[in-house]
């Protein structure tokens, strides 16, 4: 057969289903069939894969077929329908787990028509079958259906021109298809019921745990708020009813002030947590010198460290560079870490603070020789309202909010924070990493190069992110490099802005409520070019990994950048696409 003849073959040329009813039917072996069905019934308790392996083996025996298989309908992460050879017995067994397209395959057409089909030399029409050896002469396929819902197909193959399928094979395959479809449906229903029961149990356990933590937190909250009130109200009453000398009055007022500030800090922590949980914590973004931030925080805790004779050692690497951030919030991060270190370090101990550049990030490290963190509590050290000791005999006060606030503030700045400890009495180390702003050299040559390579003048950028602080940070970075930026909180707003502003490039988050980044880019790609359907697009997401990148590129984005975002890398990515 010539290539021209192959090209002229259409589906009707290889579909010979009517031949089944013109061929001489072989004799039914009821004894073998009954034995096979009883064997299959015993497999119903097995896992689906084990059951399907038995089904295809028995199918090949009953139908005297060289190969038998089951293909199941599946959906890829990008939303594409495929058919997978989940179980194969016989001469093509080595090709088990092969995936084929749905829209152009033997199984797909069988499921579309929801009827048995007999293919004759199917590789003439389906070129993907040419890879399979030995050659498929005939393939009889029956759909697996529950009602009209397609699950997949069951099929048998002949590799010998003298072995032709007939009505008996069709009857057996139809019977096996009904059994297999019902077994798969029941198996999925059973799995769903078991998963539902497990989820219910997990939810109940989590709810009980949450209630216990809530009760513990409320008890601690009551204690922490009431404790400062005792000296405040006590000394206020004594000052009203007694006459003291100046020294005692000064002592009383200092005590009242100290405890009032403590209570104010507790309330501020609670408000910060509330703002964070509602995504309302605002940042005043600008260039920040971290060494200056750390020095201010050190001044704040110096009296507390001197009171406990704790030595504070600082190691600042020169020329670390600056970061984009809110200096007050970053000072809050360092203050919280230093306060914790001093609080949990016994008198005469040591705290060390270091600042250095690690790659493209600034690293702040706070370590102490204090109490340390138990291994079983270490994974929860940054959780809200969690403390290693919630008992009434606990040594250290506080609400357990400081480190939770640290994590959230650091992540809002595009950074990370990590805790390390060898255990009880071994001290602890907290490491903060923040992206450094790219430093432009002072020579004219370098300035010219930076201007040419990292210049977004004249470029209109549409930013989509449901997190307000991340959105504002990205917009600030791009404006610093000269871009015209419009930032919106949702995919719906982005689609409107796309038509009105006609931007040059789209920067979109992936994980967003209602319409995520995948759905947004697919909707955009369905638009004609005059409606920005071909706009350049970069995905900005916290989802990392090769699989996520493949999904993102398949969905329609040109590039994928993982959060936290390094400003220069973001700008370079835009320049590489637009210019």
List keywords for this structure.
single chain, 579 residues, Helix Hairpins, Heat Shock Protein 90, 18 strands
CATH topology of the largest domain: Beta-Lactamase
Principal-axis shape equals: elongated
Low-confidence stretches: 1-6, 388-399, 439-452
Please report the first level of CATH classification, the CATH class of the largest domain. Alpha Beta
Taking the alpha carbons of the first and last residues, their distance comes to 51 Å
Q: What is the CATH homologous superfamily assignment of the largest domain? A: GAF domain
Overall structural class, as computed from helix and strand content, comes to alpha/beta
Question: How does CATH name the architecture of the largest domain?
Answer: 2-Layer Sandwich
Taking Cα atoms only, what radius of gyration do you get, to the nearest Å? 34 Å
In order across it, which strands form the biggest sheet? 3-2-1-6-5-4
Indicate how many domains the architecture comprises.
4
Rounded average pLDDT = 83
